[in-house]
Amino acid sequence: MSVEGQSPEALERGRLLFCGPCDFMLGVVAMDGLPPEGVTEIAFAGRSNVGKSSLLNALTERKNLARASTTPGRTQEINFFNLAGALRLVDLPGFGYARAARKDVNRWSGLIRDYLKGRPSLRRVCLLVDSRHGLKDTDEDVMALLDKAAVNYQIVLTKTDKVKPTEADKVAAEVAAAIKRRPAAHPFVLRTSAETGEGLAELRAELAALA
Predict the structure, then answer these.
(1) What's the mean per-residue pLDDT of the chain?
(2) Mean pLDDT of 199-207
(3) What is the DSSP string of 70-125?
(4) Which residues lie across from 157 on neighbouring strands?
(5) Among the four 68, 80, 116, 132, which has the fewest Cβ within 10 Å?
(6) What is the pLDDT of residue 184?
């Protein structure tokens, strides 16, 4: 079944899960600070300022669950959120350009890579891609890492409200073609907007199925 063809039951299950309690657990700056495993983790990764925090807030229908900022590099640690005891949502620091010291960028870039390739409870990575720009070299690098580590990931286009529908269609098609032969990639590209709500119900259903 395609993402677009989610059943009413799946959509309702996703809605109920994501409207339930969701609380900040902890922020991690080193691998030895990770919480104990056992609960399925869904990570949200992407370039700096791609909209990870805004998407997390929109998915859980909260305004300030994750701190959103227009300043690239604001999130500098791995933030864990407990979703009704069924899932952990993991907000990763952005990769690529950031207004921060190089040593800090290198530190959290290394932390991201160590987490993505070495966390057994990580069931899926939502790799966020700005619909205005499409895939960049940094996205390709992360996909290669996830392919090698055999970690399932799904491309989630963000900020679709910022482009015309035809342009969003074009970017989605280009991304779908680019991931077609990648072994760990989820085959369906999902378009979302934290502003209009496009794609949020479908993404909730997708992730709830992993709980």
Answers:
(1) 88
(2) 96
(3) SSTT---SEEEEEETTTEEEEEPPPBS--SS-HHHHHHHHHHHHHHHHS-TTEEEE
(4) 129, 191
(5) 132
(6) 97
